[in-house]
Specification:
With 158 residues, this protein is α+β, with helices and mostly antiparallel strands. Helices cover 31% and strands 13% of the residues. The chain is globular.
């Protein structure tokens, strides 16, 4: 997003940046009622899969821009985000130009979680058993391709 990003007047669930790039504005149905009634955008709230991104432990970090301005970043639990991206890549109504990118992002993120975030975001049996039916096949496919077998190791403290 850039400083010229504005709500699309024809589609209030979308923002447009200065180059015309479309940014979909989404909200989990359970959070929709918490939006301020005077909010200028109208995010899509009928997508139940947005609830998946509220699961787990979000990543909270502060980023610093090149001009030394700070911005808090809150991102979904990377395990849930990865599986959501893999699921999204197979959606029939998904923009075909985004499917390969979604699939790559999901796979890379699961690989990164396994390799670098296993203490904070363990891919253990309990996590897998908590997955909804829609996401379980994506985890199983990734695990089969990578030879990953979830264990029951206890969560270690940082």
């Amino acid at each position: 997003m850039d400083r010229q990003t504005r709500i699309n007047g024809k589609k209030p669930c979308q923002a447009l940046d200065s180059g015309g790039y479309e940014i979909e504005l989404l909200v989990a149905p359970s959070l929709y009622p918490t939006l301020d009634k005077n909010e200028v955008f109208a995010p899509l709230s009928s997508l139940h899969e947005q609830e998946w991104l509220l699961e787990g432990t979000p990543i909270r970090q502060v980023a610093v821009s090149r001009d030394d301005k700070t911005c808090p970043i809150v991102a979904p639990d990377p395990r849930w985000m990865a599986l959501h991206k893999l699921w999204l890549a197979d959606r029939p109504l998904r923009n075909p130009n985004k499917r390969d990118k979604d699939r790559q992002q999901g796979n890379v993120l699961l690989d990164a979680v396994r390799e670098y975030m296993s203490v904070s975001y363990p891919l253990i049996t309990d996590f897998v058993l908590d997955l909804p039916d829609e996401l379980l096949p994506y985890f199983d496919d990734w695990a089969a391709r990578t030879g990953y077998v979830p264990g029951n190791e206890a969560r270690r403290s940082l």
